[in-house]
Amino acid sequence: MCKYKKRKIREHNKRSDKVKELNEVLSEIRDRFGMTNKELEIYAHEKYLEKLLMITNIKLLENDNLKSVLKLKKEVFEDINIEELFVESTKITTKFNFQYKGGSILITLLKATLEKNYIYYLEDLQLIKNINSWIEKNKSKLTMFKNE
Q1: Which of 25, 56, 68, 76 could bridge 72 with an S-S bond, Cβ 3.0-4.6 Å?
Q2: Residue 116 — pLDDT band, cuts 50, 70, 90?
Q3: 3-state SS of the chain?
């Protein structure tokens, strides 16, 4: 049964890049099999975030027990108000750190004392919330959508 659930999540991620639809898939799994466990929900959100990062060329440089580091290249952050992103991130948690290095912006989330799984903090960033509009705006540049 767990294999079916994970397959359903992977199928969703191949077709869609919207968190609302991911939550609908999780709801469908709950309806069909009863409650989902926290691990499955975290797995679903991790796979969703991986897909969004791949589409937008945002790199997950490091992801261990201590921290997660996102790397935004210039073509990604030139359309983003980094100052607003910084202010917004401090409202989510003070565990976000920003660094400009080698023409890229590094966003580090320190995981040590987070109240919930790190994936939810990354998803709460406006950067991730607005990624669908960024995808639509840059579809012509993205190789993933060349054949659509």
Answers
A1: 76
A2: very high
A3: CHHHHHHHHHHHHHHCCCHHHHHHHHHHHHHHHCCCCHHHHHHHHHHHHHHHHHHHCCEEEEECCCEEEEEECHHHHCCCCHHHHHHHHHHHCCCEEEEEECCEEEEEEECCCCCCCHHHHHHHCHHHHCHHHHHHHCHHHCHHHCCC
